[in-house]
Design brief:
Length: 164
């Protein structure tokens, strides 16, 4: 049995933290002369961060507990297996709700993955960007159907295909 495996480590679309705000010496000296506290400087720096990096209300990432195993069938025969690990980006405070509904969520996501496999989505260059965009969109729609609008994105954290 010939084995071929492709592994792509997931890419997260999390924005990078912006560089620290640099103040010129005149501005710092004037602020110190006015008796500005270190807390004022911290508050100014905190306001410069993107909204999703703040402690309150930022997104949470829920890694689904088990990988998804999808058979790729051609002419009634399994020709390869695709293994995926998924992580959901969700609104703050919804992690417990995700885990509570995980069996139903996994069922909906598996159906999308089976449909993708049956339409040839895991054949050839299955890691092509356009191909994965379509898959992520379909997975997001399925997750939002089960969980609701609190699911912001579906991240493919690992993907591998083993040909037989």
């Amino acid at each position: 049995m010939a084995l071929a495996s492709v592994l792509v480590r997931g890419f997260s679309c999390v924005p990078r933290r912006p560089p620290p705000i640099l103040q010129d010496a005149a501005h710092v000296g004037a602020a110190e002369g006015e008796g500005a506290s270190a807390e004022a400087g911290k508050a100014e720096h905190a306001d410069a961060r993107p909204k999703d990096e703040t402690a309150e209300g930022g997104p949470e990432y829920v890694k689904l507990t088990n990988q998804f195993v999808i058979p790729v069938v051609e002419q009634g025969r399994v020709v390869s297996m695709v293994i995926l690990a998924l992580t959901l980006e969700v609104g703050a405070g919804t992690t417990e709700a995700i885990y509570a509904r995980e069996p139903k969520l996994r069922d909906a996501l598996l159906q999308v993955l089976f449909d993708h496999a049956n339409s040839g989505g895991f054949n050839g260059s299955f890691t092509d960007g356009a191909n994965l965009v379509l898959l992520r969109k379909a997975l997001l729609e399925a997750a939002q159907t089960v969980i609701g609008p609190n699911v912001l994105d579906v991240l493919i954290s690992d993907i591998a295909r083993q040909d037989s």
